[in-house]
Amino acid sequence: MAGEIELQVAGAPVRALFQSPKGKGPFPGIVVCFHMGGLDEFEHWLVEDLARQGFVAIAPDHYHWLPEGVGPERRREFLTDQGLALDLAVCRSYLEMQENVDGDRLGILGHCMGGRTTLLGAGCDKRYKAACIWYGGSAFKPLGQGPSPVDRIPNIAARVMGFFGNDDKNPSPDDVDKIDAAMTKAKIPHEFHRYDATGHGFMSPFSEKYVEKSAKDSWARASAFLKEALGA
To answer: What is the pLDDT along the chain (232 residues), one digit of tens a residue?
Structure first.
């Protein structure tokens, strides 16, 4: 299991998964944005595997914004883009402070709601050099005050790679076309991969939605992209 650390966000303690590769580095760093399941088995696996590949990885618990006793099924009532962006900024700063991290080689990635958060983070912070998005839906509307993640696309400084299922409904293939067009218009270097016979949530091997062929292809492509873009 990935290790855990405690961060301070807006004066409150926030736990995060954190793992470093063996050796002194300096290594590139990656902020991992969790999916609806939170910091579950899948997120532990992601952080661990990224560390095995030569990245220092950190994944914050965004659900700290939920009031005590409120579960993630009500997340949309309490999570805001402002709060999510603050979590990401704290994690990015934490990576930059680590002696074994090269702060000029930072990336961000996420799945499902984490894909949306990744798009948001890349649009809020030009420090990221690479971003990988898996099936991030509901990106056309802001959580709280705007602009939405899609509206922030012109601010992205990172190279982007995206992975989507053609049977997904959120984002639908039409949604993906619109995001693709927005990135093309903004001249954001990006590459999208779409998978037939594949729906939402296909990447997690711990989910009944897992599609092995699509998952393994997307992770191999993302790993190669991140290593090339960030010099792992």
So the answer is: 789 999 999 999 999 999 999 999 999 999 999 999 999 999 999 999 999 999 999 999 999 999 988 888 888 889 999 999 999 999 999 999 999 999 999 999 999 999 999 999 999 999 999 999 999 999 999 999 989 999 999 999 999 999 999 999 999 999 999 999 999 999 999 999 999 999 999 999 999 999 999 999 999 999 999 999 999 7
Structure token pair of residue 218: 């997307």
Residues whose CB falls within 8 Å of the CB of residue 28, separated by 6 or more in sequence, listed in order: 54, 55, 56, 101, 102, 105, 106, 107, 226, 230, 231, 232
Count of alpha carbons within 13 angstroms of residue 122, beta-carbon side: 35
Which residues form the domain of 170? 3-230
Give the chain's count of helices (H) and strands (E). Answer: 6, 8
Number of structural domains (the chain) is 1
Sequence-separated (6 or more) residues with CB below 8 Å from residue 126 = 155, 156, 157
Residue position matching structure tokens 């704290």: 90
* CATH at 151: 3.40.50.1820
The dihedral built from the CA positions of residue 122, 63, 45 and 28, taken in this order, carries a sign that is positive
Which residues pair with residue 165 across a beta bridge? Answer: 195
119: phi then psi, degrees, rounded to nearest 5: -60, -40
Question: pTM for this one?
Answer: 0.97
Residues forming a β-bridge with 129 = none
Q: Which whole-number Å values give the CA distances from 86 to 89, 114, 169, 188, in the listed order?
A: 5, 15, 29, 23
